[in-house]
Amino acid sequence: MTRPITAGVDGSEESLAALDWAAREAVRRGLPLRVVHAWRYTEQLATADRSTQQGWVSDGVTQAVRGVAERHPGLHPAVDVVEGEPVHTLARAAAEAEMLVLGSRGHGPLVGFLLGSVGRQVIAEASGPVVLVRAGDRAAAEAAGRDVVVGQQGDGDDSAAALRFAFETAAARRATVRAVRAWTLPPVFAYSPGSLELLDDAGGLEPYEREALSQALKPWRERFPEVPVAEQVEMGSAGQVLLEAASRAQLMVVGRRAHRSAVGARIGSVAHGVLHHAGCPVAVVPHD
User: Fold this and answer.
1) Cα torsion at 271, 274, 279, 281 (round to 10°)?
2) Which family, according to UniProt (predicted)?
3) Where exactly are the structural domains of the chain?
4) Gyration radius from the chain CA atoms
5) How many beta carbons lie within 10 A of that of residue 134, not counting itself?
6) Please, are residues 270 and 239 in contact by the beta-carbon 8 Å criterion?
């Protein structure tokens, strides 16, 4: 079964930007577009019953989708207006989609995304990729020669899902993948005799990190031979290195492993930092 690209809309400017982004990506990949809106009945509107309120919501979504269909005549979006709790509705939609695309407010190029509670929870709960798009996002940035940047950490398995998403996206856009790996000097006591031997064989820390990145990319280079790849290894915190690379990206891809706590699921600090400060769309991909 072909999985759609799904956009969550609520009528805001940022969600309409997300809908446009999702439509363009659906056209590139030859995938269907699904539009989902979660709504709740408001008892305070005494003059409007449930059916009337649902009609208002449906009319607003239909109008937004009509504009997308006019810009992309070959695209026939499916629309689902669902009465229910937004986080659960959107997380379920993400599980059924190739990716879920949401809007996020931004306050300028240096601030990035302002995530509401729904966005944070959906990212942490979703079992598939979630793309965050800022209000004001423009298609021109995708054709400006900018790279699809992906953060790589650990071994190949640790970042396989993020690398797969980055290569698939770059292939659809005929773009370059820039794979970024950040490293820091660990405390001396963290070394084991075995790890010291591996570092000696590699010629030191930086050559070791470069080899680790090269090995992680190897299967994806073989699978997508048409996609140009740039490898970037830098010393520094992962968040800072990725944010610097994001300034020249058309899309930033980061992996995430949700952490469970008493107050619910939370995303890692690197994904959290990138989401709040990147100026380009950001895809958060859960680890396999």
Assistant:
1) -10
2) Belongs to the universal stress protein A family.
3) 1-137, 140-288
4) 20
5) 25
6) yes
How far is the C-alpha of 74 from the C-alpha of 158, rounded, in Å? 38
Q: What share of the chain is helix, strand, coil (3-state, %, to 5)?
A: 45, 25, 30
Nearest to 36 by CA among 56, 21, 19: 19
Distance CA 78, CA 275 (A): 28
pTM: 0.85
Q: Please tell me the CATH code under which domain 1-137 is placed.
A: 3.40.50.620
Name the DSSP class of 177.
E
Kindly report, residue by residue over 67-100, the tens digit of the pLDDT.
Answer: 898 999 989 999 988 888 888 999 999 999 999 9
Distances (CA, A) of 124 to 30, 196, 202, 206, 251: 28, 36, 37, 32, 20
How many CB atoms are located within 10 Å of the residue 219 CB? 14
Is the CB of residue 30 less than 8 Å from the CB of residue 124?
no
